[in-house]
Every structure is written in structure tokens, then in C-alpha cells.
Task: structure prediction
Amino acid sequence: MTMKFGLLGAKLGHSLSPQIHQEVFWQLGIDATYELIEVPGDMLAEMVKELQRTHRGLNVTIPHKVAVMESLDRIAPEAGAIGAVNTVLFKDGLAEGFNTDYFGFARLLEHNGLVPQGKEVCVLGTGGASRAILQCVTDMQAKRITVISRAMENAPADLRARYTVKDYDDLKTMSGDLLINCTPVGMFPKVDASPVDSAVMEHFAAAADIIYNPAETQFMKLARQQGKPAVNGLFMLVAQAVAADEIWLERKLDAGLIADVTEKIAKLL
Result:
């Protein structure tokens, strides 16, 4: 029997998730499908209930990662700590939420030698993806973490309670070891934009962008033009997808699968 999976989001035209999961399923010899499911926020709860009857699991992306939690029966510990869900498992009549963005970003940092232990890290953005990355660099023992928000007063209260939150004007006088873009600024099709300028980038030793399309964002170009390491989010995307597949299939997958699938998917960009 064919297993059904899908990605819930508002606008999904740019997503590579179907290609990634289908590649994993093909390599594992699994009969499964993966579809894009666009749904507005006011229909999210209804859609989750409907899909529970037909699907084994879902991924969740912008802007539903926080709101979807209200429609679930259980929340895994890492997702509860983060306050956002990107993976849902339907099993035994229950819907359980997980956050594999956390694991995906950790694998990205490790793979590129950007482990934040003892380092000063600055994270741009306060959305669902930012929450996962903040928890990740916290658990990886970053020495100091600063969150940059367009409007500090509008930043979620729980983030303001846990982290130092500043705005983009403050960022102009800051420095650190790793600058992480968790905003959609620079994502296809608006590829000419960057959340920061070259003057800001000068004060950071390395850059990581969770955007993967385009393969090199303007944010990354600013870092590379200054001779600094910069990585995109493709390895994270594949790593979090493989982690989701492990949850859905209830089995551990070979770590080499991430690099293999990343190499194949990179050719599509």
C-alpha cells in the first residue's frame, strides 16, 4: 500500500521537498508519494484533520509552524522547547508534532565546521525556523546569542525572555563569529535582496543562510566577497527531511544518505 506524505504551507511553488523525499524513498525502495499542500491559516486545523485520514505524515512550513501545534495531540520535547513544529506523524489515531529543523541545522553546522560552541552568534529573524536554530545553537553551547528583529517590541515575549533581542540599527555596531539569516529576505524570486549590507558583514567571521534557492544568496555573496565562509540551507533542508523520514518510517537511516541526496538535489538549483 502506497504511503502518503505532504508539505503544508501557504505558498509552496519554490519547494524542493517533493524531490528530496522522493529521492529518499527511491533509494530506500519505499512505495510512497509526497505532495505540496497549500492552505491558508484559517483552514489549517480543518486540513490537518482531513489529512490525518489519508496520510502517514506531514511537513509544515511558513507560516504554519507555530499555529499547527494547536491541532496536534502530542508535542515532542524538542518541538515544545522550540515552540514550533515542522513534522507531523499520524499514528494510532493521534497527531504528534516534531521539529527536525533543529537536527537539520545542527548537521549543517557540523558538516561545514561552523560549530558554535564558545562562539558569539547572531540570528536574524524571530519566526518558526529562527526558533529551531536558536534552540540548536543554545544546545551547541554558543557563548553569546543575539536575536535581531525588525521591531523589538513585536518580537515574541518568550524569545525576549530567553535571549538578547536587538533591532537592525543595533546590528550596525555589533560583531561576532557567526551571522545566521533566518528571514526569507533573498529567497527566490526576490533574489537581489539581502537582510544586511557589506558593512554589517565585515564584523562577522562567517555566515549561514537557511535559504537554499538561490544556491548563493546576496547575503552569502557579501560574506564570500570578504573572504569569509558562507553556506546555504540545502544541507539543512535535506538533513531535516531525512530526520522526518526517520520519524515517519520509524527507522534509523544511514548518515551518508544526507550528503548523497544533497549532491543530487544541488544539481536542480
